[in-house]
Amino acid sequence: MKEVTLTPGEITRITLPGLGSAGYQWFFEIENKAIASVAKLEGEAVDSPRPGTSSRDELFQVTALAAGQTTIHFAQKRAFAPNAAPNATQDVKVVVG
Questions:
Q1: What's the pLDDT at 46?
Q2: Facing residues of 39 across strands?
Q3: Half-sphere exposure of 24 (CA within 13 A, CB side)
Q4: CA gap 46, 3 in Å, rounded
Q5: Closest among 96, 88, 39 to 70, alpha carbons compared
Q6: pLDDT (0 to 100) of residue 28
Q7: How crowded is residue 77: how many other Cβ atoms within 10 Å of its Cβ?
Q8: 3-state secondary structure labels for all residues of the chain
Q9: pLDDT of residue 48
């Protein structure tokens, strides 16, 4: 599990590998919304598509709100198949101190 350490008010960005050309996008859930917030950055400049695909990576902004720990659960799924198993998952532990 990836871990990021922040101070209250600090902002960081998380980049996840895109697979939009196959209909996938990243969705997220955060365990404790009082500790940090997450927002998908739509339209932000992300590097060119990854080699071997026409998909662009997806970018998320994490803002530390208060001291504590929380985990963000990311799941790469197709919006038109919300009950299907995710193609990929990634958890990020956020420590705010």
A1: 62
A2: 61
A3: 22
A4: 22
A5: 96
A6: 97
A7: 20
A8: CEEEEECCCCEEEEEECCCHHHCEEEEEEECCCCCEEEEECCCCCCCCCCCCCCCCCEEEEEEECCCEEEEEEEEEEECCCCCCCCCEEEEEEEEEC
A9: 56
What are the tokens at 58? 């997806």
pTM: 0.89
* CA dist., res. 87 & res. 96, Å (int): 29
- 2-6 and 88-96 strand pairing: parallel
CA torsion, ordered 77, 83, 88, 89, to nearest 10 deg:
110
| Widest CA span in the chain | 41
Residue 15 corresponds to which tokens in the numbers above? 């980049």
> Averaged in consecutive runs of 10 residues, what is the pLDDT profile of the chain (97 residues)?
97 93 94 98 65 79 98 96 95 98
- At 66, which amino acid appears? A
